[in-house]
Design a protein that fits this description.
With about 260 residues, the chain is mostly helical. The chain folds into two domains: about 110 residues, no CATH class; about 130 residues, Four Helix Bundle (Hemerythrin (Met), subunit A). It is built from seven helices and three strands; from the N terminus they run αααααβαββα.
């Protein structure tokens, strides 16, 4: 195969490149039928993943707040038990000093109860607020999942309609690529990738480059017609061929 590629003349290589360009342009046209749907589907999938992560984080936050409420309840219950104990101990004190000490301890435990209840109420309010956020996020999530389902169905329908044509075109393109030497093929793909309209090979139209429409000097046009070497546009870098090689008449090229 490698030997065959080397034996191709410049004219044959240019013809293969131009035909490859036509096939890939047709592939681009088929892909254009899908419009922005692939990007829309990807954006929706990313947004849904983000919403799911958000809901998961909210649930983790609620779990942490419930744990905090549980801890504060334990502290409150402990304070209530201590108040009960200290109150009973006051009946058995030996002097005013012990009674005053127990009184201060009871007051301190009442403060602990108030603080624990305050923290529990704050946590409960946060949980309610987060639940509202979860509700909003889930509502948005349901809406996005519904839209995603519709977009995917639409995209799959278009893909199924065009899949056979695209595969056929790509198979033809692969066969042509095998005829073109690796270096030239790599250069062509690089040019095509950087070209706004995906054209890596163009023919001369109205004495100008068919890609960027900058004028080509007569001497340069003569060199292109001779098919002795690969010539690129000095302005846009696209590979240039003459109209005849592209199967276009001079009249058509002048009126293009």
């Amino acid at each position: 195969m490698a030997k065959q590629e080397k034996e191709l003349t410049v004219e044959e290589r240019l013809k293969a490149l131009y035909n490859l360009q036509k096939l890939l342009t047709e592939v681009d046209r088929v892909k254009t039928l899908r419009g922005d749907l692939p990007l829309e589907v990807q954006d929706l999938e990313d947004e849904i993943a983000g919403l799911q992560t958000r809901v998961s984080n909210f649930n983790d936050e609620i779990a942490a707040l419930n744990e905090e409420i549980k801890n504060q309840q334990a502290q409150r219950d402990n304070a209530i038990a201590l108040i009960d104990k200290y109150t009973k101990d006051q009946d058995n004190v030996r002097n005013n000093r012990e009674f005053d000490y127990l009184t201060k301890e009871i007051e301190y435990q009442h403060l602990n109860i108030e603080l624990a209840e305050k923290k529990m109420n704050e946590a409960a309010r946060k949980i309610e607020a987060i639940k509202m956020e979860i509700g909003n996020a889930k509502e948005t999530l349901d809406d996005r999942e519904h839209v995603l389902g519709e977009k995917k169905a639409e995209l799959n329908e278009i893909v199924n309609e065009t899949k056979q044509d695209e595969e056929k075109l790509r198979e033809q393109a692969r066969k042509l690529e095998n005829k073109i030497d690796a270096r030239l093929l790599t250069a062509f793909k690089r040019i095509r990738k950087n070209a706004r309209n995906g054209l890596g090979v163009v023919y001369v139209q109205r004495n100008a480059c068919g890609g960027c429409f900058n004028r080509i000097p007569p001497q340069r046009q003569m060199e292109i017609k001779m098919h002795k070497k690969i010539i690129v546009c000095e302005y846009c870098g696209r590979i240039l061929v003459d109209p005849a090689l592209a199967g276009v008449s001079e009249a058509e090229a002048k009126n293009a």
